[in-house]
Amino acid sequence: MHNPSSRLNDLNLIRNAQAGSQSAFAELISLYDRSALRLALHLTGSETEAQDICQEAFLRAYQNIGRFRLESCFYTWLYRIVSNLCLDWLRKKQAHKQRVFVAFDSDGEEHDILEHLPDSRPAANPERELLRQELGKRIRVSLKRLSPRERMIFELRHFHGLRLAAIGEILSTRESAVKTSLFRATRKMRNALSSERRSRLLSHSARVAPSACADRLEACTN
C-alpha cells in the first residue's frame, strides 16, 4: 500500500487532482476509502455513522487538496481527517454500539485476533466461537474506560497496525506523547479486563457454592 511505486502513483494522482481533475481525485480516494471506512466503522460501531463520517472526510479532502503538501503521505493526511471527525463523534457519544471484533493490518487487511487457536469454524469448534464472543464482549466493555483520544490511539495501533510515528502525524502530536497515551490505554484495558474477569469468577463461585453444599449435604444423609 505504501511502497515506492504506490507512492509515485499517489503523487501523480495528487498533482492531477490539484490541477482540477475530478477523476484523478476519485481514483485517489478509491485507493483508501475501504481502510478509511473500516477505521470509522471500528470507532463508531455504526455503519451509517461511519459512512457519513467518511463522506464528510472525502468532501473535506476534495476541498483542501490544493493545500496538500506533496512531501506528506496522502493516506496519513486522509486518516487525520477521518480521525478528527471520529474523535468529535466519540466525544459527543462517549460510547459506541456493538462492533465486530476483528483487527486490521496497515494494508487494511482483516486478520483474526484469535487466529492462534486451531480451528476458526464455529461448527467445528464451538468452544472457540464462545471464547471469541466472550472476549469481544469484554473488550467492548473495557474500551469504554478509555478517553476518546486513548481509544483512537489504541485502535490505530492495535487494529490498524500503524506505527507510533504515523499515529503521531495523524493526530498532530509527538511520537513520545502517542507512546505515553498508548501505555496508559493499554494499562487501563489490562486493569479493566482483569477486574471484569475477577468479577465473573466471583459470580461463578457464588453460583457453584450452593450447589456444592447441597451435594455434600445429600451425601451425608445417604
| SSE class | mainly alpha
Output the strand order for the largest sheet.
1-2
Number of self-contained structural domains: 1
Classify the beta-strand content into a percent band: under 5%
Identify the quaternary structure here. single chain
The CATH architecture is Orthogonal Bundle
The DSSP helix count reads 9
Give the C-level CATH assignment: Mainly Alpha
Q: Please trace the helix and strand order, writing H or E for each element.
A: HHHHHEEHHHH
Using the alpha-carbon principal axes, give the shape.
elongated
Q: Based on DSSP secondary structure assignment, what is the total number of beta strands?
A: 2
Helical fraction:
over 70%
Q: How would a crystallographer describe the biggest sheet?
A: 2 strands, antiparallel
Distance between the termini: 72 Å
CATH fold-level assignment: Rna Polymerase Sigma Factor, Chain: A
